[in-house]
Amino acid sequence: MTTMDLRVGNKYRIGRKIGSGSFGDIYLGTNIISGEEIAIKLESVKAKHPQLEYEARVYKSLAGGVGIPFVRWFGTECDYNAMVLDLLGPSLEDLFNFCNRKFSLKTVLLLADQLISRIEYIHAKSFIHRDIKPDNFLMGIGKRGNQVNVIDFGLAKKYRDPKTHFHIPYRENKNLTGTARYASINTHLGVEQSRRDDMESLGYVMLYFCRGSLPWQGLKAATKKQKYDRIMEKKMTTPTEVLCRGFPNEFAIYLNYTRSLRFDDKPDYSYLRKIFRDLFVREGFQYDYVFDWTVYKYQKNAQQQQQIKPQDGDKTPAEGQASAQATAGNTAGRQRKTVTPIQQQGQAPEGTGHYY
């Protein structure tokens, strides 16, 4: 299929490919009426495990929540299912790499506040995400550049009846669904996932950002199952105090709390936000939404300004600073269009997962 001249929903033109997953590709698209850029996710109608229609339904159920991308259109064009979404910025994994794979405590705490709230909202709508990882959180663009968004609901599942709130039953012998690196211990053990597992996974994501890596990364094994087993063993035998060593005690408190939850317990999201907010205040940080990548991007562009514009030496310090900030803003805009806006790391149907 040639996508450059293809339209979906009569008013969205498909442009260049900007990302891919196991079940489909993501393209930059344009609303031919307004000129607005959007993201278009395509999946072959012949896909072995079609999931795009289900994902679109989940997005519709979650519509209106802060940090939930809006689905503009879903349907079938030629041999493809297509979903048109808000265009978003880089993922937290992209930004982690941009910042040399280490985030400051301030950035982790700024993110933690939003991440807990996003998961709380998803749970309030009777869904669990089941694939909490840095790749599935994207920053916004433009006026919403400081807002964390959640994507990729192909593995999401209802954990309760939306009307009666009856919880799904406890089950065992389930295959791993999600990404092994961030999976909860109970998920490794084959227990049906519930709210507690999303929260425990978020704990591993935050420690990954603080530490730069997790102790169970890079383990070698002959088969996928053996690799999963090695990851599980390392996860279970690494004491919380060792995992959190060198970082504030709040991270250990968070992890111990989420691991202590029973299957159908509702996590105390407010308590978890509060321990991190109290730490934020105690550290003397400001809620200015200046993340590490904001500073790093500014510094990089300021250096480039000095290298490529010797005439800037004639400017006053204030003028030079304004010029660097303008360049940083322009570069950020260009980068947002080249970084995968809706990133899907090869999702798989229930019973399969990833270990990268």
UniProtKB/TrEMBL annotation:
Reactions catalysed according to its record: L-threonyl-[protein] + ATP = O-phospho-L-threonyl-[protein] + ADP + H(+); L-seryl-[protein] + ATP = O-phospho-L-seryl-[protein] + ADP + H(+)
Name of the protein in question: non-specific serine/threonine protein kinase
Family designation: Belongs to the protein kinase superfamily. CK1 Ser/Thr protein kinase family. Casein kinase I subfamily.
InterPro entries cross-referenced by the UniProt entry: CK1_Ser-Thr_kinase, Kinase-like_dom_sf, Prot_kinase_dom, Protein_kinase_ATP_BS, Ser/Thr_kinase_AS
A Gene Ontology molecular function term of the record: protein serine/threonine kinase activity
SUPFAM superfamilies linked to this entry: Protein kinase-like (PK-like)
Phylogenetic lineage: Eukaryota, Fungi, Dikarya, Ascomycota, Pezizomycotina
Signal peptide (residue range): none
Record keywords, A-Z: ATP-binding, Kinase, Nucleotide-binding, Serine/threonine-protein kinase, Transferase
CDD domains associated with the record: STKc_CK1_delta_epsilon
Compositionally skewed regions (Polar residues) per UniProt: 322-347
Domain of life: Eukaryota
Spans annotated as Disordered: 306-356
Source organism per UniProt: Botryotinia fuckeliana (strain B05.10)
Domain Protein kinase residue range list: 12-281
Binding site for ATP: K41
PANTHER family cross-referenced by the UniProt entry: CASEIN KINASE-RELATED
EC number in record: 2.7.11.1
